């Protein structure tokens, strides 16, 4: 069913090349994805997680705060760690002098799944429509 | 986790911090700017914001942005002549490739599969978009697809505090 919905009702019928499975055999498998793992996150947080991931999974606490403020997400980083647990996202202090606070993503699968779910993992075609 | 009682970052990972793409392209201004625009391609960028995020000067950031405009990776819009706004050109394939590279850096360091998942999602979306385009041409209708927010509304899970925070 997911195939029909996401393709606007079209069931694709790719031409079968010699030695390769037809596209129509591969697509239903590729498009059938389960729900992301809990805990559930919203669009803004998924976007923040994707942002963190694309910056190697780290950011300075100040950068994270600046991002959240500029994107008007209302995310409080300490509140976030408290709610989702340091096993998923944590705040550290560095050994350097002067010491800095650093936000680090730990649960890559969780962040990945939700970023994909909201379509913020990679630049999206829907953004291209506005161009 | 209290602010005064933060755990120390392991010294083994400290070397990776703050260097875009694991130091592959050095520490130039344009590399820092590229990392920022790749990280959040939906945003409108202003030199002042990027200067703050990268720790570089406004002038050098503006120069880097203009180079990216020349490269057709970004577009420049003058809503206010004094304060141009820069947007990512989402049709740029180099932007897609740089996004994959960002994930590849994590995968090499942490042994994760972020790039594989992203490539999979990219292919899935490209194929869906291609077939949707064919459907549009056949039927003469516009394809919108299911929005992420509509998907969340369809889910039975409890969204939690951050699930529907404003903006986005």
Description:
- The complex is a heterodimer of chains A (131) and B (168).
- Chain A has 131 residues and is mostly helical.
- In chain A, 45% of the residues lie in helices and 10% in strands.
- Chain A folds into two domains: 2-32, no CATH class; 43-117.
- Chain A has helices spanning 2-6, 23-31, 43-54, 61-70, 77-84, 108-117, 125-129, and strands at 58-60, 89-93, 101-105.
- Chain A has a three-stranded antiparallel beta sheet with strand order 1-3-2.
- In chain A, helix 3 crosses helix 6.
- By secondary structure, chain B is mainly α.
- Chain B contains seven helices and three strands.
- Mean pLDDT of chain B is 77; it is low at 141-168.
- Chain B has a three-stranded antiparallel beta sheet with strand order 1-3-2.
- Chain B folds into two domains: 11-90, Winged helix-like DNA-binding domain superfamily/Winged helix DNA-binding domain (Arc Repressor Mutant, subunit A, Orthogonal Bundle), CATH 1.10.10.10; 94-145.
- The two termini of chain B are 27 Å apart.
- Helices cover 52% and strands 9% of the residues of chain B.
- Classes of the chains: A mainly alpha (131), B mainly alpha (168).
- Chains A and B meet through helix 2, helix 3, helix 4, helix 5 and strand 2 of A and helix 2, helix 3, helix 5, helix 6 and helix 7 of B.
- Chain B: Residues 140-168 are annotated as: Disordered.
């Amino acid at each position: 069913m997911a195939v029909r919905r996401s393709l606007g009702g079209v069931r694709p019928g790719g031409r079968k090349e010699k030695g390769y499975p037809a596209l129509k055999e591969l697509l239903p498998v590729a498009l059938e994805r389960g729900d992301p793992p809990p805990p559930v996150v919203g669009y803004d947080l998924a976007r923040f997680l994707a942002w963190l991931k694309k910056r190697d999974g780290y950011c300075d606490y100040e950068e994270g705060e600046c991002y959240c403020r500029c994107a008007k997400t209302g995310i409080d980083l300490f509140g976030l760690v408290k709610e989702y647990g340091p096993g998923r996202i944590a705040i550290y202090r560095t050994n350097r002098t002067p010491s800095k606070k650093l936000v680090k993503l730990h649960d890559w699968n969780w962040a990945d799944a939700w970023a994909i779910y909201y379509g913020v993992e990679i630049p999206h075609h829907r953004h291209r429509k506005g161009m | 986790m209290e602010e005064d009682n933060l755990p120390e970052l392991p010294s083994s990972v400290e070397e990776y911090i703050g260097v875009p793409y694991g130091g592959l392209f050095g520490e130039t201004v344009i590399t820092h700017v590229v990392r920022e625009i790749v990280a959040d391609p939906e945003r409108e960028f202003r030199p002042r914001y990027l200067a703050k995020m990268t720790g570089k000067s406004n002038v050098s950031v503006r120069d880097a942005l203009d180079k990216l405009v020349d490269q057709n990776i970004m577009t420049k819009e003058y809503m206010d002549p004094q304060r141009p706004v820069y947007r990512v050109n989402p049709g740029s394939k180099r932007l897609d490739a740089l996004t994959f590279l960002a994930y590849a850096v994590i995968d090499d360091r942490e042994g994760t599969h972020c790039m594989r998942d992203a490539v999979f999602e990219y292919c899935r979306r490209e194929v869906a978009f291609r077939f949707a385009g064919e459907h549009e041409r056949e039927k003469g209708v516009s394809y919108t697809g299911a929005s992420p927010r509509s998907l969340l509304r369809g889910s039975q899970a409890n969204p939690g505090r951050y699930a529907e925070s404003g903006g986005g």
